[in-house]
């Protein structure tokens, strides 16, 4: 068997990995929606249309809840193909859909029974909560999801520390348990059909197992096996530092250039903090390297991290990898600290590579010597674009379509990998669309904590 050179174009799969994952999720969701709809009609309708609508909304809400668990399970197969950006976006839309389905469930059921009993909605809600098993638990679950939904609105999210936002989201698990027990107690699908009951048990147990495996079992097993520890801390600039780690059997760790981990450095003052940092060098089977800029207290403390510190790492995560490369050549575009996954990708993408590195000042261009040496070794090109955001060149904005075309005339025949601040990333995506780069060839990683 002939071994391909490291930078030769990868063989294309019959279906692109991202497309395969989207098809799988769409088929899974459509099949489950169809099954639930069939079970609902087989179970029989209420004489009151409002009650029937409310019950159907409740079934779809329960299904959305299970789908949410699948999205947050961080299953490697899905994460490598869609990436946390897309999974986070799906999670957000599913969450708000779940919220509105629950609102519809409560409103239609309460008003339906109020009309049946000849009472007002408030009295009927109190009556249901005090006379039917599971209703009070459902109300508590509904309130918890309302709170989480309110905290997830962009206005509130931007004013909240990530740790606080994450802690509030943990209440969702309590809501899931309460909602499930409510469904067992009074759900018509559970009480009237053994087949439907078997379906719901399978769906909920499967979702729970996915979360348990992806969020707990797999990270614990990997860390017990690899036993990561810090072997060097190297300042790269006045406010940027690289941390080198080693461990056991790192050649068996399924990490790729462009991915990131959630790192916990197990010192007395920071073991409880998990920070997302990308690998800044392609994994070589012996060491891992992350490079971080001091943008907060936690990342600033990395400079004083003791050698020998044990590390608990969750991951690898992210679809910002060369497995998605479609064309023989690539363009890598980085802004600020987004250079870290781009620097790693420079070792892994195939063909001729052009790197565009956007910084405010030349002295901010960390890892530049490495980029230049790597590019030279493989016949690539690095363009350093320096200046404020509004900086323009001979062809307009530095990352505008005219400037990109002047620097990379064959951009439409390349895969484009973009990582940087959200504003810069959005500007580049607009530019490449105007230049006619097919969407399948554009791979973006928005460098933000939520991702």
Automatic annotation (TrEMBL):
CDD domains registered for this protein in UniProt: FNR_like_3
Protein localization: Membrane
Annotated TM spans: 21-45, 57-77, 98-115, 135-156, 168-186, 198-218
Protein name: Oxidoreductase
CC terms in the record's Gene Ontology section: membrane
Keyword Metal-binding: yes
Main location: membrane
Protein's membrane topology: Multi-pass membrane protein
Annotated keywords: 2Fe-2S, FAD, Flavoprotein, Iron, Iron-sulfur, Membrane, Metal-binding, Oxidoreductase, Transmembrane, Transmembrane helix
Gene Ontology molecular-function annotations: 2 iron, 2 sulfur cluster binding; flavin adenine dinucleotide binding; metal ion binding; oxidoreductase activity
UniProt domain FAD-binding FR-type: residue ranges: 223-323
UniProt entry tagged with the keyword Chaperone: no
Cofactor(s) the protein requires to work: FAD
Domain of life of the source: Bacteria
InterPro entries assigned to the protein according to its UniProt record, in alphabetical order: FAD-bd_FR_type, Fe3_Rdtase_TM_dom, FNR_nucleotide-bd, MRET, OxRdtase_FAD/NAD-bd, Riboflavin_synthase-like_b-brl
